[in-house]
Amino acid sequence: MKKYKVQISFSSKKLDLNPSNFNGLNNVVLVEQNNGYKYYYGAGSTHEECKKKLAEAKAKGYKSAFIVEDN
Fold first, then answer.
1. pLDDT computed for residue 70 by the predictor
2. CA–CA separation, 68 vs 9, rounded Å?
3. 3-class SS at 65?
């Protein structure tokens, strides 16, 4: 079964996963990949479930956030 998550950022700098570092978003997940760090917020088993999390992320200033398939 496919799963989805919301990518909010990619950075060459590793940030502490404190809500204060992510405009108040809680439960941000970090994945080290491609010589950098991808930050994700929210997950779900359907694309529809992630749309709410995507809207929350965009409202917090992550205008380029998008939904990705979680492998």
1. 87
2. 12
3. coil
